Amino acid sequence: MACALKASGGLYQRLRIGAVLLAAGEGKRMGGLSKPLIRLQGVPLISRHLIALSAAGIDEVVVVTGFAREAVEEHVRRFIVTLAHNERYAEGQDGSVRVGLSALSGDFDAVFVILADQPLIGGGDLTELIGAFKRRKSGHIVVPVVNGARGNPILLDAVAQARILAGDAKTGCRRLIDRNPGLIAAHETANTRFVTDLDTIEDVETLSKNTGWKLELPATLTEGA
Q1: Is 14 helix (H, G, I), strand (E, B) or coil?
Q2: Residue-level pLDDT, tens digit, the chain, 225 residues
Q3: Tell me, what CATH number does 167's domain have?
Q4: Looking at the domain assignment, is residue 223 inside a domain?
Q5: CA 181 to CA 69: how far, in whole Å?
Q6: 139-152 burial: b if 16+ Cβ within 10 Å, else e
Q7: CB 31 within 8 A of CB 51
Q8: Could you list the residue range(s) of the whole structural domain that residue 50 is in?
Q9: Which helix (H) or strand (E) is 138 found in, with range?
Q10: With contact defined as beta carbons under 8 Å apart, do 214 and 41 qualify?
Q11: Whole-angstrom distance, CA of residue 9 vs CA of residue 115
Q12: Contact 164/172 with Cβ under 8 angstroms?
């Protein structure tokens, strides 16, 4: 089994790492559009995330679909991933997390939970969080913290994965973290990509203005299209 050098000169055992990419939301605050289909420099956000996951060497990726299922899946099919559909996506993100974790094959040392509306996350950012996971002294959920603000994506160990899957229908990452702060292994960082997301049209306009990059919104879609 491959190993990586620790800063102290020892070795880290290679971890088996999975990822759940959440792409099921309705984009209500954007007037009902699928945020994974927003194009940054011509590339849909869903594709950007899958490229980043590949660059970080993730072993298995589950993409959870819901709203705009067919349109999202069209962009995913050229990647080697597992598709999992959350029929109850309108009930919120927690159910999508559970659907994604359940669709992973086998056991994983760590699993990313990734939001598809974070436009700037790349392979290097995921590698940064994997390093934080390996170095942590305690805690079961690595959470990036930027200037006191919690960010995403997060990284769950096997204990946290089991807690979510064993909980009720409303048990997801956010609720688990809010109710059990002792589970958190905070990764303090100045990397603002972890706290950059697109919740509103104004967020899109601000990012375009600040970066000079072209962002294109998809058409507004009917439910389940």
Answers
A1: coil
A2: 344 445 444 556 789 999 999 999 999 999 899 999 999 999 999 999 999 999 999 999 999 999 999 999 999 999 999 999 999 999 989 999 999 999 999 899 999 999 999 999 999 999 999 999 999 999 999 999 999 999 999 999 999 999 999 876 666 687 788 888 899 999 999 999 999 999 999 999 999 999 999 999 997 654 444
A3: 3.90.550.10
A4: no
A5: 34
A6: bbbbbbebeeeebb
A7: no
A8: 3-216
A9: none
A10: yes
A11: 34
A12: yes
- Exposure string of 177-195, with b = 16+ CB inside 10 Å and e = fewer, is beeeeebbbebebebebbb
Residues 6 or more apart in contact with residue 47 via CB below 8 angstroms: 75, 79
Sequence-ordered list of residues with C-beta below 8 angstroms from that of 221, at least 6 positions apart, any chain:
32, 33, 34, 67, 68, 71
Task: For residue 20, give the 3-state DSSP assignment.
Answer: strand
Q: Within a domain: residue 221? A: no
Please tell me the distance from the alpha carbon of residue 37 to that of residue 22, in angstroms, as a whole number: 13
Residue 225 within any structural domain of the chain: no
Q: How many domains does the chain have?
A: 1
The answer to the question of residue 91 being in a domain is: yes
Q: Whose CA is closest to 126, among 15, 9, 5?
A: 15
